[in-house]
Amino acid sequence: MNAIHIKAAIHHNGDNQTVIAPVSTPDLIEVRLLAERLHVEGQEYRGMAWGWPAYYDPELREEAAEFQILDEQGEYRTEIRPFWSPASFTIGESGVWFYSLLWELGRDKPPVEFLDDQALATSFTSKLIQR
Q1: Most buried of the four, 7, 23, 56, 86, by CB within 10 Å?
Q2: By 3-state DSSP, what share of the chain in percent is helix, strand and coil, each rounded to 5?
Q3: Is this prediction's pTM over 0.90?
Q4: pLDDT at 62 over 50
């Protein structure tokens, strides 16, 4: 776990103030290991990991899925065609700290990774003051 501090804007009774809050983020190596394990198992997951909400959705492949398509007259018609949705893993809260893996190149290919840690980029490291 990585312990860091972030600045958060607090709005209370019409007053704006900034507070410093500790946040822990997991090591991405550990997160990748969890995501890979879930991916190998191929089972949907909804839960918490390292204090953050985490989700895994396995690959979905259907030979004949129904789609409602809007035509030129503004009417919907049904089309049947193959459907594929890649496996995905997400952890965190968007806007605070968020990490995702998407197997968009296929089940057996390495996943595409995305890390949103911009809120943490403005953080600072606190130092213990010896007295």
Answers
A1: 56
A2: 15, 55, 30
A3: no
A4: yes
